[in-house]
Write a structure and sequence with these properties.
The chain is built from 13 helices and 18 strands. The chain has helices at residues 6-21, 49-59, 94-103, 138-148, 183-198, 217-227, 272-282, 316-332, 350-360, 393-403, 420-426, 438-445, 449-453; strands at 25-29, 37-44, 63-70, 75-83, 120-121, 126-133, 151-161, 164-173, 207-211, 214-215, 248-254, 259-267, 285-293, 298-307, 338-345, 363-373, 376-385, 408-411. The chain has an eight-stranded antiparallel β-sheet with strand order 1-2-4-3-13-14-12-11. The protein has an eight-stranded antiparallel β-sheet with strand order 9-6-8-7-16-17-15-18, with helices on both faces. Helix 2 (49-59) runs antiparallel to helix 3, helix 6 (217-227) packs across helix 7 (272-282) and helix 7 (272-282) packs antiparallel against helix 8.
């Protein structure tokens, strides 16, 4: 039963009054620091303010080199030293307006977006959320189902971590280009995708959800993987030779000040602060003070936190859970494998064909970013060899020949550079050269083998 709480309404109205009396103030300073732009944010404190600011900076593709955060009491004061993605100072001041709008009366309040702080509108698409156990060929099967059901994928992002997979896929009807809202058709999509996700064995259980609305993709991916408990370490396995370096996370109580102090060190990368702040927010912790330093190859983050009930961490089990969750938040976005970039004209079944070719050549997708701009598809896949070995140059050449060398690029991997004569000796790989593996048999049982084997 839901009980109305007058105190909640009073608090909410008081918060709006404070925001009207003391609106957020954002200033941009290009002078003080010769290497970066300073962004200063002052506003009345409300739950979620830090996440909203970091979200805006992340969406603008800014790198946070240093940050000093204080939100103790009724006021929120942050200073961020930022650069653009190329390491340069900012050339425009529109970032101030963006942050001002986010924190202002017309911005996105934390209470109105409990499910997804930060908004990316998806009203022109149907949103599909998937979680389940990862396995070789899973992405190929998912896209094959969508192709068979005449669903055009206009955007998608897929993360894998600790044997789990989470993805958000935006689709439209292939014939009309409009969102799919027919209940029977949506139910069929959910049912078939759930069959694919479950496979032969998924001890934790797969989940699918379909909606037409708004979400912030990466924010939601963190929530999906956290809810799926990808931070559990009983199945955690870091293979030898992995390029990822395990982060160092310590959690200790500062008794005299009533805080829990979280210290974190790991290799620096884009969006790192966003990932850690998302996780602390999902775990119902409030950041009161923080210091962020990321000016070299290593990043250092220190947070003074309390639970939303005002208490610091009170048990060893809770301390270990925070450590594991922060480690998972950092590693989810670490890109294992080769980055393959695919650019070309979009069409129904393109992703199904491409991921099928990956599977047939023994490649597994660890992460993917799918975007469509007009009629052009721009996709990025991170792939590894399914056997755990290093991806061979011959394998990439076979994939290139099958997909089309003009549209597939291997990003920053010199060992895959081969001469033209070698490519000619390698020979072409036919789209029609298929083998009946376990994944195809599974799709055959669903009546979808045509979508997997038909040459586009």
């Amino acid at each position: 039963m839901h009980y109305w709480s007058p105190s909640l309404d009073v608090d909410h109205e008081f918060e709006k009054l404070v925001n009207r009396m003391h609106p957020p103030r954002v200033t941009v300073d290009h002078v003080t620091d010769k290497n970066s732009t300073l962004i200063k944010v002052d506003s009345a404190n409300k739950r979620g303010s830090l996440l909203e600011v970091v979200q805006v900076l992340t969406d603008l593709n800014l790198s946070i080199k240093r940050a000093y955060i204080s939100s103790d009491g009724g006021w929120f004061m942050d200073v961020f030293h930022v650069t653009d993605q190329y390491g340069n100072k900012l050339s425009e001041d529109n970032v101030a307006d963006r942050i001002q709008q986010s924190l202002g009366p017309r911005g996105c309040s934390f209470r109105s977006l409990r499910g997804s702080v930060g908004v990316q509108y998806a009203s022109e698409n149907t949103t599909i959320e998937l979680t389940g156990r990862d396995r070789p060929g899973l992405l190929s099967e998912v896209f094959a189902v969508l192709t068979d059901l005449k669903c055009n994928v206009v955007a998608a992002e897929i993360w894998t971590h600790n044997s789990r997979m989470a993805s958000i896929v935006y689709i439209t009807d292939d014939e009309t280009g409009l969102p799919i809202d027919d209940p029977e058709r949506l139910a069929k999509i959910k049912q078939l995708l759930l069959y694919v996700l479950k496979g032969d064995l998924d001890r934790r259980g797969a989940q699918t959800a379909v909606s037409v609305g708004s979400t912030h993709t990466q924010r939601r991916l963190h929530q999906l993987m956290y809810a799926d408990r990808d931070y559990d370490t009983d199945e955690y396995d870091v293979s030898e030779g992995s390029s990822s370096k395990k982060p160092r996370v310590t959690v200790e109580n500062c008794v005299e000040r009533g805080y829990t102090v979280v210290n974190l060190r790991c290799p620096d990368r884009p969006k790192l602060l966003f990932d850690t702040v998302c996780t602390l927010t999902d775990m119902q912790y409030v950041v009161f003070h923080a210091t962020i330093i990321a000016e070299g190859t290593e990043a250092f983050q220190e947070f003074y936190i309390r639970h939303t009930d005002g208490c610091p961490i009170s048990s060893e089990a809770e301390r270990q859970r925070v450590i594991h969750c922060l480690e998972a938040a950092i590693n989810r976005r670490v890109s294992e494998g080769l980055r393959l970039e695919l650019c070309g004209e979009d069409r129904l079944g393109l992703l199904s064909d491409v991921t099928r070719i990956f599977r047939e050549n023994g490649l597994s997708v660890t992460r993917a970013e799918v975007t469509t701009r007009g009629s052009e598809a721009k996709n990025a896949f991170y792939v590894i060899d399914s056997s755990g070995d290093q991806v061979k140059s011959e394998t990439i050449e076979a994939v290139r020949n099958a997909i089309g060398e003009t549209v597939l690029k291997v990003k920053e991997d010199e060992r895959l550079t081969t001469s033209k004569s070698h490519r000619q000796q390698t020979g072409g790989f036919s789209l029609g050269t298929l083998f009946r593996n376990r994944s195809e048999k599974f799709l055959y049982n669903l009546g979808l083998i045509k979508a997997c084997s038909e040459v586009a």
